[in-house]
Structures are given as C-alpha cells and as structure tokens.
Amino acid sequence: MTTTGEERAEVPPPEAGPWWWDRVRSAVLDVSLGVVSALECGLEGVRFAGDAGIPVAAGVVFGVLAGSVLVLRRRWPIAVVLVSIAVLPAQMGMLLGIVGLYTLAASELPRRIIASLAGMSFVGTLIVMFVWMRQGVDRGDLTFGDWVVPFASVTTALGVTAPPLLLGLYVGARRRLMESLRERADSLERELQLLAERAEERAEWARGEERTRIAREMHDVVAHRVSLMVVHAAALQAVARKDPEKAVKNAALVGDMGRQALTELREMLGVLRSGAATADRARGAAVPLAAVGAAAAAAADRELSGGEESTAEGPCLSELEELIGQSAAAGMVVELSVEGETREYAPKIEQTAYRVVQEALTNVHKHAAGAKTQVRLAHRTSEIAMQVENGPPPEPSSASAARLPSGGNGLVGMKERVVALGGVFVSGPTDAGGFRVSAVIPA
Q1: One-character DSSP codes across 345-395
Q2: Pairing with 295, which of 269, 336, 369, 438 sits 20 to 30 Å away (CA)?
Q3: CA 329 from chain center: how many Å?
Q4: Residue 282 has pLDDT above 60, yes or no
C-alpha cells in the first residue's frame, strides 16, 4: 500500500531521545546493553582481582566501569573498541568487544580506521587466547596436542571479531543505501512537484496566449466587417432617396458582410466550445500528475510552434483581392500591386499577412475615409513583405461623420502577430499627411 505525501505529513515524527540518541528506544537499548556489560565485567573482575592480587572490590569496580563504557557506543565507538582491547588481558569484556566492534563497523567512520581497530582487536584476542591456552596446557588443565593451541586461538579470534565486523559493515551499508533511496525519493517528489508547478505555469501562459489570439481574431473580424457595414449603412442612408438602385446594392453588401462576420464568429465560438468541453472532461477525470504535466507542456508547445492546429482554417492571401474589393465597394480608392512570383505559404503566415492588410484597411475606413490607399505585396526568396499606405483624407471630418469607434488595439495586435512569427512591423505617419503600415514576415 503506497503512502502519499499528504499522508506522510500526517504521520507524527518519532520522539527524540535524550542527549546524543535520536530516539528513546535507542537510549533504552544502549543503557540496557551497558548494564549487562557492566554486570559481566564486574563478575569477571572478581577472578581478575584474584589473579592480579588486588582487592576484590577494586576488581569489581574496574570491571563495572569498563563494561559501562558500552553506553557510549553510538557517541564514541572508537573509545568503546579501545577499552575492549585494553581489558582483553584481564579476560573480561566479551560483550563489550563484540557490540563495540559491530557499532564501529556500522558507523560512518573511514574504512581504514575500522580495519585498523578490527585488526587490533583480532590480534589482541589471538594473543590472549594463545597465552591462556598455553598456560592451561603447561599447568595440565588442558590436555590436547600443541597444534591445537594456535588453531584454537586463531579460530576463537576469528569467531569473536569477524561476525560482528561483517554484520556491522552490512548494516551500515544497508542503512546508507536506505538513506540514499529516501533522499532520492524526496528529491524526486520535489522535482515532480516543481514540474507540476512549471507545467501549470506553462498551461496558464498557454491559456493567456490563446485568449490573446482569440481576442485578436475577434477584433479583426468585428472591427473590419462592422466598420464596412457602418460605412455602407451611412452611404445607404445618403443615397436611399436619390439612387434607389445603388441603395439596394449597398444593402446587399451590408447583408453579405454581416453574414461573413457571423460565419467567422461562429467558427471561433465553435473552437471555444470544443476547448471548454475538453477542459471539463479533463477536470472530471482522475489524471495522473505526469499526464497533467505532459498535456500542459503539449499545449504550451503548440502555442510556441505557432498554434497551427487551432488556426488551420482561416483567411489566406488568395482572398486578398476580395478583401480589397469590399473596401472599394465601400467607396475607398484602393489599388493592389503584387511583386514577385505568387506561391503558397504556411497557413499561419498567410493568415497573418491577410490580417495585417485587413486591419490597415479598417484603420483607413476609421481615420481617413475616402483617402487613396495603396496596397503592396512582395513575394521574396525567404520572406513576404506587405505595405498599406494611404494619403490624407479629402475631408478631415469624414471619419468622424461615420462615427466609427477605435479602441487603439489594431496596431498592437498587428505587431504582436508579426513579431510572434519572427517578423518586423513598422507603422507611422508619412510626410504627405497619410499613414503607412509595413510588415515583413520570414517565409
């Protein structure tokens, strides 16, 4: 059964132990081992006092003090091993030596220190056993051949030092491995959380870019179509009684433009509805963290690559003549000149070029109605260039007469489109009193 990060956070940490112990049960274990070791060494101190010719009390006190050093095994494992080696000639401290050597091998000390102290313990045990068995053979207490003495000494020394040393090395290596795995798991969890946050940021950025793109599209559609409709409606009002035939023609143009505007708006709203439905399905399902990050990254990558999937259907350069014809029908004197060999471009490039010309013509309708306008399109080797330039309006009050509002976002939107494709956009007034919009887009 797996445990999530929130569940792990709810588990209370283990109670800290006193002094140098991490936990209370570690302190209880070490104190218990120290008491047992002190009792063992105290009992062996009685025999040591008789052999050394000292008072029994002194031997017992010496043994208790030496055995109780085992309490410090986690704090100073080297001192514990050195004390066990020091009391080997007194033939005491068996538990002290075994546990001390195990603790030393399981610690984080350098291997050369562990090997040196283990070798000293092995040699000390070997010498003590050899001397004790040789004295027993000489006194007649032990009856076996001389070859048994070195063999038994080496075997005993190995039996006392090798098992705790190997077990300590194994436990220390396993502990370090578990700590490393735990650190890697914590690091991986932090990385996943960071990736999720970055993915959410990229998804939010992609959503913002998509909203900006849709706002630009709706601005282009509404501003241009509605501006032409207002111009035609004003003309229709002016000629309704004088020229009924022209009034009928203008009314038909207004209807066509309105239907085109509604069609383009319906397409964009369909894209928004499909995107909202997809988002609702994603919120309603249990999606893994990696899938959320991958989906958000994919959405951001699609936006970085130009959003070709979302803009595959849109206006193209082949519709440019129709666009200019609509402006001409609204009373604008507009000319189109094309340089270079006409060819097809990526849908995003053609749509951007079309929108630049469309927005520039819309600005002419708003701010310079009736001004003569020149549209130039140049197909070059590695780029496509476009320029829309108009002269001064014949009647400065004509723009305000149509009452066309302006939000000031047209030039900003055109520049954003062009710069997003790595192009250059320049706009500004001309010396003749008109206005010029120029853009170059890499092909």
Answers
A1: --HHHHHHHHHHHHHHHHHHHHHSTT--EEEEEEE-SSEEEEEEEE---SS
A2: 269
A3: 55
A4: no
Q: What is the mean pLDDT of residues 58-65?
A: 89
Contact, 125 vs 89, CB < 8 A? no
**In 3D, which of 53, 43, 147 has the Cα closest to residue 91?**
43
Contacts of the segment 289-296: beta carbons below 8 A, 24+ positions apart: 289/192, 289/196, 290/192, 292/196, 292/199, 293/195, 293/196, 293/198, 293/199, 294/199, 295/203, 296/199, 296/200, 296/202, 296/203, 296/206
pLDDT over 70, % of the chain: 78
Q: Which amino acid is at 46?
A: V
Unique residue bearing structure tokens 């986690």 = 74
Q: Predicted confidence band at 8 (pLDDT cuts at 50, 70, 90)?
A: very low
Q: In this structure, how many other beta carbons lie within 10 angstroms of the beta carbon of residue 319?
A: 13
* Residues 6 or more apart whose Cβ sits within 8 Å of residue 71: 30, 31, 33, 34
Task: For the chain, state the CA radius of gyration.
Answer: 46
Residue 405 tokens read as 């509002």
Q: C-alpha angle with apex 391: 247 to 336, nearest 5 degrees?
A: 70
Helix 94-106 vs helix 77-86: angle between axes, to the nearest 10 degrees? 150
Distance CA 214, CA 265 (A): 10
Rounded CA-CA distance 345/17 in Å is 74
Q: State which H helix or E strand residue 339 sits in.
A: strand 334-339
Non-local (6+) Cβ contacts of 416 within 8 A are: 212, 216
Strand-strand pairing, 334-339 and 373-379: parallel
pLDDT at residue 98 greater than cutoff 70: yes
382 contacts 442 by C-beta, under 8 angstroms = yes
| pLDDT of 297 over the 80 cut | no
State mean pLDDT over 123-147.
77
Query: At residue 384, what is the residue type?
Result: I
pLDDT at 285: 46
Asked if residue 90 lies in contact with residue 53, where contact means CB atoms within 8 angstroms, the answer is: no
Query: Which tokens belong to 64?
Result: 């208790």
- 439 and 383 Cβ atoms separated by less than 8 Å: no
